[in-house]
């Protein structure tokens, strides 16, 4: 099990969140993760080869034009700085679409659930602080076979608080989600990401979505690994 801060003696615990306040806090983590995609998108566009080439071309053209007009060095510096500022502000505005996605999504429906579908919200607490969550949807008990030999669990959201990322906690959350899904729906239950999961919306052109495509591939691979680990653990207990 990953530990956010080995030097801290606070306990890391996983649980299914049932209290309304806890579920709302988990939803806020998801909303934040959607808005934070702006930072990833901005960084990718800023350093995209096509965008950088266009910026260099504009700077070069401005330099030649101002040189022909006899402008001094200070005027060139001011002009070039203005061009770079416009470049960055344009990218910032374009990437802010992710904030609008976070604001305009009907998040309340994520808590209310759907007919025949139950939303299980898993959380990881570091002491009393909720630092990671998974939104898992499963068929309600009265809508599936009593044999519990089939079913499908769907992950609609999977996120960790920003400062606790890259410490293995995301993998722990996926393993916990697989365990809960299998216990709830049976060992043959399939677990997969929803096509419309929280971070599935892309606000920019495909050429700028490389980081998100890579993230999705890594998430799918991590989930497959979590399922295999659960199956291996079950096999060893037989």
Automatic annotation (TrEMBL):
Source species of the chain: Cylindrodendrum hubeiense
The protein's name: N-acetyltransferase domain-containing protein
Cross-referenced Gene3D superfamilies: 3.40.630.30
InterPro entries, per database record: Acyl_CoA_acyltransferase (IPR016181), GNAT_dom (IPR000182)
Molecular function (Gene Ontology), one example: acyltransferase activity, transferring groups other than amino-acyl groups
Transmembrane parts of this sequence: 45-67, 73-90
Record-linked Pfam families: Acetyltransf_1
Keywords for this protein: Membrane, Transmembrane, Transmembrane helix
Lineage, top ranks: Eukaryota, Fungi, Dikarya, Ascomycota, Pezizomycotina
Domain N-acetyltransferase: 106-205
